[in-house]
Amino acid sequence: MRIAGWVLTGLFAAFMLMDVGMKLARAPIVEQTGRQMGLPAGSGFGIGVMEAVLLALYLFPRTSVLGAILVTGLMGGTAAIHWIHADPWPSHILFGVYLAVFAWGGLWLRDARLRAVFPWRAA
């Protein structure tokens, strides 16, 4: 379970690092996509800083649950923005949900204390 948890955590972290890197590097696609979503010009950099902080909170063991909670809020916001713009469900609206599931799944699998609070029970 612990290995599977770290694999999920690694996949989540790898995607987030790529996303943060693109935003902090001010990649043109970030600005273009932000404009299509109605975000203020140049907001990608600030969002990237916020994502980096949330990722650090998630990856640091003492603050990992707080990080997962905040990541879930961020991903809910991305789902809402894609919903407002009538983007496709599986590829856009639910993508943030997929990431949140990876974040929480990885944390749940690698942390016995979290499994004790949220046990998996067969019906």
Protein model, in words:
The protein has 123 residues and is an all-alpha fold. It has one domain. 80% of the residues lie in helices and 0% in strands. The protein is built from seven helices and no strands. The chain has helices at 2-24, 28-37, 43-59, 64-84, 89-93, 95-110, 112-117. The radius of gyration is 15 Å and the shape is globular.
Fraction in beta strands: under 5%
Contiguous low-pLDDT stretches (5 residues minimum) are none
Radius of gyration: 15 Å
Structure annotation, total helices: 7
Helix content: over 70%
Give the overall form.
Answer: globular
| Largest sheet composition | none
* Total tally of structural domains: 1
Assembly state of the chains shown: single chain
Mean of pLDDT: 94
Which secondary structure elements does this structure contain, and how are they paired or packed?
Blueprint (H helix, E strand, L loop, with lengths): L1 H23 L3 H10 L5 H17 L4 H21 L4 H5 L1 H16 L1 H6 L6
Helix pairs in contact: 1-3, 1-6, 3-4, 4-6
What is the gist of this entry?
With 123 residues, the chain is mainly alpha-helical.
Keywords:
mainly alpha, 80% helix, 123 residues, single chain, 7 helices, globular
